[in-house]
Amino acid sequence: MIPLVKVALPNKKKLLPELEKILYSGMIAEGEAVYEFERQFGSHFGLNNVLAMSSGTAALHAALTLAGVGPGVEVISTPMTAEPTNLSVLHCGAKIIWADVDPYSGNIDPESVKLKITPKTKAILCVHYAGYPVRLRELREIADAHGISLIEDCAHALGAKYDGKHVGDFGDYAIFSFQAIKHMTTVDGGVLVISDASKLNLAKRFRWFGMLKGLPRTELDISTVGYKYNMNNVTATIGLVQLSVIDEILNKHIQNGRCFDEEFASIKGIDFAKCEDVAESSYWLYTILSDRSNDLERAFNSAGISASKLHKPNNLHSIFKSSKVNLPGLKLFYSRLLHIPCGWWVSGEIREKIIDVAKKG
After folding, report:
1. Are 180 and 31 in contact, with CB atoms under 8 Å apart?
2. Where are the domains positioned within the chain?
3. pLDDT tens digits along 295-308
4. Where does 12-243 sit in CATH, by number?
5. pLDDT for residue 30 is more than 80
6. 12-243 and 246-360 have identical folds
7. Could you tell me the pLDDT band of residue 214, with boundaries at 50, 70 and 90?
8. What are phi and psi of 229, to 5 degrees?
9. Strands 95-98 and 74-77
10. Whose CA is closest to 149, among 247, 67, 63?
11. Rounded to a whole number, what is the distance in angstroms from the first to the last CA of the chain?
12. 258-274: average pLDDT
């Protein structure tokens, strides 16, 4: 089967010598490799105040906490995402308020967000689903008008752009994930981006037991709860090597995605996810929309091409039953949704096979 997602690692001639150096350096926990990764990641993607974390979920827990999310407050979020996005809200003890999604992209709908704001709303949590940027300008305006935080979950969207800038540069907080099957992996890991530099030390304490690294433990005082959410030098080293090849990987996703856009535009019965003209998807997954998505899924799988909806809308899980609400946009999007491969492993030959199956299917 041609996989829907696949791990991307650099050539072993590049990676293994660097790993050997760090593994036998005597410094494998959080250290200079982590801080260099933070600097290079921020420089590469035009982002300031970058902190490396043990996972994207850890970064999201930190973002929500720094935004003041806790018991008694509400977070407006999207159900169309991987479950950790919204489980992180529960980690903080807050209540999730579902906004509906745009049926043409699967992303949170700003018009629905406006209707869900209450005095208890503390943050808007948006996800650039499958790599397609949300309507950031509208969400930013809503957040500013109500004095609440905008948090970007960019786990699917490394390399995606909005208004000429990389996603992650628009929220009060943003997170990226380097879990195994994302555009870029460090085996596991994540990044927290903070717009307000004055909160960096608080975030650093959050990721390390409430303590600041580099201070003698006999002299410091723990005043806030922290966790073991730090990245280590080994995964950071993988990340540093990955940054040297990530543009090539991202470009292959984008080239394949744009090719599918062009080809599918002329196939009757098939539509595809779209974002604003100022937005550029990084196509972690390619999103087909069709009234016959189940038939297409069977056709692709029969031809040896993995295709599925991949995620279950989070509002359908019993753990979120207290937030149940009617979401017609989500219902329409999910009924028509089908993801197909468009990553770096999809060669021109495979791409043609996918297009041929779509035409026949």
Report:
1. no
2. 12-243, 246-360
3. 999 999 999 999 99
4. 3.40.640.10
5. yes
6. no
7. confident
8. -115, 15
9. parallel
10. 67
11. 17
12. 96
pLDDT 10s digits, 175-195: 999 999 999 999 999 999 999
Q: What is the pLDDT of residue 216?
A: 87
Question: Computed from CA positions of residues 187, 105, 84, 110, in that sequence, does the dihedral angle turn out positive or negative?
Answer: positive
Of 95, 122, 161, 182, catalytic? 182
DSSP track, 294-360: HHHHHHHHHTTB--B--S--GGGSGGGGGG----HHHHHHHHHEEEE--STT--HHHHHHHHHHHHH
What is the 8-class DSSP label of residue 102? -
Cβ-contact 102, 330 below 8 angstroms: no
Helix (H) or strand (E) holding 51: strand 50-53
182 is catalytic: yes
Give residue 361's pLDDT band: very low, low, confident or very high (50, 70, 90).
Answer: confident
DSSP state, 100?
P
Taking the alpha carbons of 342, 345, 346, 350 in that order, is the dihedral positive or negative?
negative
Structure tokens at 4: 């829907």
Q: Residues 54-93: pLDDT tens digits?
A: 999 999 999 999 999 999 999 999 999 999 999 999 999 9
Q: What is the CATH number of domain 246-360?
A: 3.90.1150.10
